[in-house]
Structure to design on (489 residues):
């Protein structure tokens, strides 16, 4: 047995003007789950505490709550000392009980067709991962799009895809999905990471629905323009200034000291065409830290904008060209700076080489300590880096070496999934929310590691937005300046 102290969200609409937290200390068995703690509080300390539960074995979804801000099933999450237990981010009826009905009522049901056709084994195998949903609504509680626009949400999209695959259903699921907000999903993947059943809703439902929508001619006009540009030029954005590729004449950039490693650099469209200075800064940081960089000129768009918007007709051509560009040079490690490119190469390609984000490269091989700058910074986690690649600590390890870091909630900025081009009002609303969080930190600058995030956030904050490597390079320049001054004296 052990004592556990927890903070629990309390709100009784019949008595309370606003919500508050109460702290309880209770004795429970070693290994107790959060649900056991709630039972103990209810049975021994406070019978007025309201919460839901049913099966107690992770199968019904009734006991979904937030623990330290993250959605979990109370019956499956091990209780730790000093945790905070809150309801899901939905309308609260009382304490930890939320109103599920408005969302559950939007989930489509099968419309039987006159056909006697039954699902094949292949159909069943494809449907099965989507059928595992227990309707706990953890995914809905973390969806940024649902906060700012009319979107029925991830579990509704999951169900539309599940029914679209079922030959017994007569509904027009693609048209329904588009009407319900299919193209408002930012591909942030928060729903997948929150799902107790690990249903990959973005890739297995939303992107698949968008592909079917494309075949019906329902792709948004702005997304069609991007696809046409990629097909014509090999890039998803237009050239507006000399590109990184043009500014770097050599295919191989040698380090200034001993070679620690040799990597290929997948530049990506944004760092090549719109933010070349950040890529040039990165090359200086890599040179200083013993990394030889090979930059194949044949590389093109990774295809991420096409995958996210369901336009796959010439994706294989892009993949082959990119893979061959590095494979033919015998490169065994390819580095990305762009979170979206990295996630795509890691998750949507089958590469004969290892793919690493630049933060992984620098923390793996180690960096020369830069001078510390008298700056307070906050870091924005790109969705395709944090959730798409599982990278959280490496960027922070680098940032803390040069500035003071103040963390903020890891929420989507609104630039992904084709939303910035296809639904600019939604993107702006999410960008404003990101700007509000930045302001709360009191930071002097914002640091990130995704060109789309950097570009979008810059329009929603009055603070400078910089790439991690740019800040590191500033630290090195300050170190050199101090060293030069000390030599003069």
């Amino acid at each position: 047995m052990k004592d556990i102290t927890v903070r629990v969200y309390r709100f009784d609409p019949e008595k309370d003007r606003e919500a508050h937290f109460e702290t309880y200390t209770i004795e429970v068995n070693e290994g107790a789950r959060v649900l056991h703690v709630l039972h103990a509080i209810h049975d021994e300390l406070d019978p007025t505490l309201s919460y839901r539960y049913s099966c107690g074995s992770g199968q019904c979804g009734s006991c979904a709550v937030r623990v330290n801000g993250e959605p979990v099933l109370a019956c499956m999450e091990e209780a730790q000392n000093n945790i905070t237990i809150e309801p899901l981010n939905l309308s609260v009826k009382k304490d930890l009980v939320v109103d599920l009905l408005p969302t559950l009522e939007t989930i489509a049901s099968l419309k039987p067709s006159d056909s006697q056709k039954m699902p094949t084994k292949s159909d069943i195998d494809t449907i099965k991962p989507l059928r595992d949903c227990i309707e706990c609504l953890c995914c809905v509680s973390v969806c940024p799009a649902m906060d700012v626009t009319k979107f029925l949400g991830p579990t509704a999209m999951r169900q539309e895809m599940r029914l679209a695959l079922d030959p017994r259903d007569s509904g027009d699921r693609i048209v329904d999905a588009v009407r319900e907000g299919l193209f408002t999903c930012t591909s942030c993947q928060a729903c997948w990471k929150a799902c107790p059943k690990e249903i990959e809703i973005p890739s297995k439902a939303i992107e698949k629905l968008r592909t079917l929508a494309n075949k019906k001619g329902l792709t948004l006009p702005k997304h069609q323009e991007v696809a046409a540009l990629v097909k014509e030029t090999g890039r998803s954005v237009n050239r507006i200034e000399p590109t990184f590729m043009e500014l770097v004449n050599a295919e191989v950039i040698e380090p200034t000291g001993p070679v620690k490693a040799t990597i290929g650099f997948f530049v990506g469209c944004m760092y090549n065409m719109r933010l070349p200075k950040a890529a040039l800064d990165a090359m200086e940081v890599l040179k200083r830290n013993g990394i030889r960089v090979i930059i194949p000129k044949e590389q093109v768009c990774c295809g991420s904008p096409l995958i996210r918007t369901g336009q796959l007709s010439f994706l294989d051509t892009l993949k082959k060209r990119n893979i061959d560009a590095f494979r033919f040079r015998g490169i065994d490690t390819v580095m990305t700076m762009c979170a979206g490119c990295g996630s795509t190469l890691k998750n949507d390609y089958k590469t004969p080489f290892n793919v690493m984000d630049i933060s992984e490269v620098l923390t793996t091989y180690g960096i020369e300590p830069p001078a510390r700058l008298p700056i307070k910074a906050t870091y924005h986690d790109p969705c395709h880096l944090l959730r798409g690649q599982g990278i959280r600590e490496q960027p922070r390890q680098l940032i803390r070496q040069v500035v003071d870091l103040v963390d903020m909630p890891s929420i989507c900025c609104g630039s992904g999934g084709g939303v910035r081009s296809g639904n600019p009002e939604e993107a702006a609303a999410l960008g404003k929310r990101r700007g509000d969080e930045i302001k709360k930190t009191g930071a002097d600058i914002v640091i990130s590691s995704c060109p789309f995030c950097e570009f979008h956030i810059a329009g929603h904050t009055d603070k400078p937005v910089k790439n991690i490597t740019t800040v590191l390079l500033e630290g090195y320049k300050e170190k050199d300046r101090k060293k030069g001054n000390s030599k003069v004296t």
Observations:
- Residues 67 and 332 are 41 Å apart (CA to CA).
- The chain has 23 helices and 16 strands.
- The mean pLDDT is 96.
- The chain has four domains: 2-98, 104-215, 247-365, 376-479.
